[in-house]
Amino acid sequence: MAKTLLQFLTEEQRKSGLDNGLIQVIGDVANACKTIASAVNRAAFTGSSGYLESENVQGETQKKLDVITDEIFIGSQNWTGRVVGMASEEMDDVIPVPQDVAGKGKYLLCFDPLDGSSNVDVNISVGTIFSVLNAPAGVTTVSASDFMQKGVTQVAAGYAVYGSSTMLVLTTGNGVNGFTLDTNIGDFVLTHPNMTIPADTKEFAINASNMRFWEAPVKRYIDECLAGKEGPRGRDFNMRWVASMVAEIHRILNRGGIFMYPLDSKLKDKGGKLRLMYEANPMSFIVEQAGGASSTGRERILEIQPNGLHQRVPVIMGSKNEVETVVSYHKDA
Ligand code: AHM
Ligand code: MG
C-alpha cells in the first residue's frame, strides 16, 4: 500500500532523526494546502473569484483568493505552538503567533499562499510555496531580523500545486518526494518518490515579452536556444511559460528544463521579480535537492544573505548543465 505523508515522515524520523515538531509543522502545512485546494476549486460557487480594491505590500492588486488563502495558512499555524512567527507575501510585517503559544515554538515559516494568482480565474495551475527555518534560540516575539537567514539554513521547504490533481512536493534536506492528494481518503499519498531533475534539457521557460529589457548574458543564452540545430547549441529547444512558478518548477522536476525570471532593466531598482524568502529560497532548496542548480546568474541563491522579508532576486534554476551555461555567460560578460 502506498505511504501517506505522515507514514513517510515517520519513517524519515526513524532513519534520519527528523524532529517531531518539524513533522507536525509539515502536517499543518499539508492540511492548510488541502483547505486551499478546496477554496481554489470552489471559488466560482463561493463568490471568491476576482479582485479586491486592496494592494499588498509589493503594490500588487490582491485577488480575493490571495487574502482567503493567506488567512487559511496563518490559521493552520497560529495556535499550534510549533511556530514562533510567520512571514507571508501578502503581509507587510512578520506575523507573530499569540503570546500564549509563541514561547513553545521552534520554527519560523515563510510562505506565498497563492503563487501565480493571476492564473486563478482562468483555471490554470496555481500553488502554495513554503520554507521552514529554525527560530533563533529563546525568541518569543519575532522580528524581521530573525528571518534573515541564508537559504542554506532551511530545514524544510515545499510547494503544493493545484492542477489537474493537487500535489505536495517536499524536501527536508534528504532528497525530494512528491505526494498526490487522494480525495477518496483525504490524505496526501507518496506517488513520486526521489524526484530528480535531468542534468540536460531542451526546454526553457522565460517571459519572452521582456526580451528587450534583458541583460546580455540572458539574451545570448535564449538567442542560442532559438537558433536550434543550426546554432551553437546544435539542438532544437522547446519553450513553455505558465506564469505560475510552482507549475513551472513542477514540470522541471518531472521532465527537466530551465526556468528564468532574470534581472532586466525594468526590474533593476527592485532587484528582480521573484521574492527570496518565500519563492526563490524554497524552490532553490527543492531544485538543488533534486540534483538541479539555482543561481541569480552571479551567485548561488541559497548563499544570499537576506536583507528584507520581501527582498527580490533574479532567478535562474533547473537542469544543472543549462544553469551552469547561463552562469558562465554572466562570467564571460
Ligand atoms: P505572484 O506570487 O504574485 O503570483 O507572482 C509570482 C509569479 C510567478 O509564479 C511567475 O513566475 C511570475 O510571477 C509570472 O510573472 P509574469 O506575469 O511577469 O510572467
Ligand atoms: Mg508568488
Would you spell out the secondary-structure blueprint of this structure?
Layout: H1 5-16, H2 20-41, H3 43-46, E1 51-55, E2 61-63, H4 64-77, E3 83-88, E4 95-96, H5 99-102, E5 107-115, E6 126-134, E7 156-162, E8 166-171, E9 177-182, E10 187-192, E11 203-205, H6 216-226, E12 238-239, H7 245-255, E13 258-261, E14 274-275, H8 276-289, E15 293-295, E16 312-313, E17 315-318, H9 320-332
Parallel strand pairs: 3-5, 11-12, 11-13
Antiparallel strand pairs: 1-2, 3-4, 5-6, 6-7, 7-8, 8-9, 9-10, 13-17, 14-16, 15-17
Bound molecules: 2,5-anhydro-1,6-di-O-phosphono-D-mannitol (AHM) and magnesium ion (MG).
Magnesium ion binds at residues 89, 112, 115, 279.
For the structure shown, list the relevant keywords.
binds 2,5-anhydro-1,6-di-O-phosphono-D-mannitol; alpha+beta; D-Maltodextrin-Binding Protein, domain 2; 24% strand; Fructose-1,6-Bisphosphatase, Chain A, domain 1; globular; 2 domains; binds magnesium ion
Question: What is the overall pLDDT average?
Answer: 96
> Ligands in the structure?
2,5-anhydro-1,6-di-O-phosphono-D-mannitol, magnesium ion
Fraction of residues in H or I helices = 25-40%
CATH superfamily of the largest domain: Fructose-1,6-Bisphosphatase, subunit A, domain 1
Which parts are unreliable, with pLDDT below 50 for 5 consecutive residues or more? none
Query: Could you tell me how far the N terminus lies from the C terminus, measured between alpha carbons in angstroms?
Result: 53 Å
Give the CATH level 1 class of the largest domain: Alpha Beta
Molecular shape: globular
Q: H/E series, N to C?
A: HHHEEHEEHEEEEEEEHEHEEHEEEH
Percent of residues in beta strands?
Answer: 15-25%
Radius of gyration: 19 Å
The biggest sheet, with number of strands, parallel, antiparallel or mixed sense and barrel status, is:
8 strands, mixed
CATH architecture of the largest domain: 2-Layer Sandwich
Strand order of the largest sheet: 4-3-5-6-7-8-9-10
The total beta strand count reads: 17
Give the quaternary arrangement of the chains: single chain
Kindly name the structural category. Answer: alpha+beta
Distinct helical segment count: 9
Number of domains: 2
CATH topology of the largest domain: Fructose-1,6-Bisphosphatase, Chain A, domain 1
